[in-house]
Amino acid sequence: MIYPHGNIESIADDVYMVRGSIKMNALLRITRNMALVKEGESLEAEFRSLLELQFDKLLSAHGTLIENGAHAAVLKAVDTAFAKTES
After folding, report:
1. Do 47 and 27 fall into the same domain?
2. How far apart are the first and last CA of the chain?
3. Which residues contact 65 (CB under 8 A, 6 or more apart)?
4. Residues 34 and 14 in one domain
5. C-alpha pair distances (Å), 64 with each of 1, 27, 32, 53, 80
6. What range does the domain containing 72 cover?
7. Tens place of pLDDT for every residue, the chain, 87 residues?
8. I want to staple 58 with a disulfide (CB 3.0 to 4.6 A). Which of 23, 44, 70, 79 is the partner?
């Protein structure tokens, strides 16, 4: 599961911020702020190298557990994130 988040905001040269929150229950919402740092042209190569590993489960940094089919879910997310658009 990918939780909703805001737009990617540029906060400095090659530094970006994404803000979001996760509703845990009726009384508790946890905010999350993520920083992205661009190195080189793209992070696509780093994400693609992750896909060279064989895995079926994934516990992400924000606590989402994918118990089955994690490799396919990550592949789909990476393909979507780095989809080439026709000019």
Report:
1. no
2. 31
3. 57, 58, 59
4. yes
5. 7, 20, 13, 19, 19
6. 41-87
7. 566 677 888 888 888 888 888 878 888 888 888 888 777 777 788 888 889 999 998 877 666 788 899 999 989 988 988 887 554
8. 70
